[in-house]
Request: fold
Amino acid sequence: MFGKAVLNICFATVVLLMAGCGVFSSVSGELEPSETLNLDEQFEFSEVLENRENIALDMRVPIKSGYEIVGASFDPDMLRLDNFFEYDDDGQRRVKYIYTAIAIGSSDVLVKMQPVGGGNIEIYKRVTISVEKN
Reply:
């Protein structure tokens, strides 16, 4: 009897620990953003968000041009990166960044790329995000 109780408590603890660590979350990014901004057509974009609103920045990986995306820089006092993932869309590699506005102000998100074989890092996309009160 005591052994079953200990076993059940251990099992429940492991399940809760795994859920807390995000083991059950999807790789495809199940967080639903307030809006998605497709960054395929231009270099520079701007968007206005309300505080605590989130946004997804979705773009192609410039692999055909010989580049890979190596990260994004942003103001962590104004935006929080909630998720980043790469995915395949009909044979085309894409990436998605999901940010949440956490402070009022304006900041640039600079998505950076680098040649696949190494080399200088360049800015791939620039998104100016302005956060206003609700």
Observations:
- The chain is about 15% helix and 50% strand.
- The first strand starts at residue 35 and ends at 38.
